[in-house]
């Protein structure tokens, strides 16, 4: 993530230098460079972690003991977390 930040900021500045802020609001001035990437990155990390847990039998057993659930319940909860791992996506404003 730390490696991606300077690239995102440079890309953001380049876009503003090339195209500027359009008068009809196609690219809002208050839009940030990193926030959409951060949500996607977190979603992929959480989804991949849940998928790895579901596919690893001993890890499912360990988590089911730690949480006090059955193995089937632990697998089900991890599959549910894969659908929307970080909650619903952030709202997009269509200004």
Give a brief rundown of this model.
The chain has 95 residues and is an all-alpha fold.
SSE layout and pairings?
Blueprint: H1 4-19, H2 35-55, H3 57-67, H4 71-83
Helix pairs in contact: 2-4, 3-4
Pfam family, one: SF3b10
Provide key terms for this protein.
single chain, 95 residues, mainly alpha, 0% strand
Q: How would you characterize this protein structure?
A:
InterPro entries: SF3b5/RDS3-10. Pfam families: SF3b10. By secondary structure, this protein is mainly α. It has a domain at 34-83. The chain is built from 4 helices and no strands. It has helices spanning 4-19, 35-55, 57-67, 71-83. Helix 2 runs antiparallel to helix 4 and helix 3 (57-67) crosses helix 4 (71-83). It starts with a helix and ends in a 12-residue tail after the last helix.
User: What Rg, in angstroms, do the CA atoms define?
Assistant: 20 Å
Q: What is the typical, i.e. mean, pLDDT?
A: 77
Low-confidence parts, pLDDT < 50 over ≥5 residues? none
Helix content: 55-70%
Pairing-aware structural class of the strands and helices?
mainly alpha
Portion in beta strands: under 5%
What profile does the largest beta sheet have?
Answer: none
Write down the secondary-structure element order. HHHH
Distance between the termini: 29 Å
What's the total helix number?
4
Quantity of strands, as a count: 0
Could you say which overall geometry the principal axes of the C-alpha atoms support?
A: elongated
GO biological process, one term: mRNA splicing, via spliceosome
GO cellular component, one term: U2 snRNP
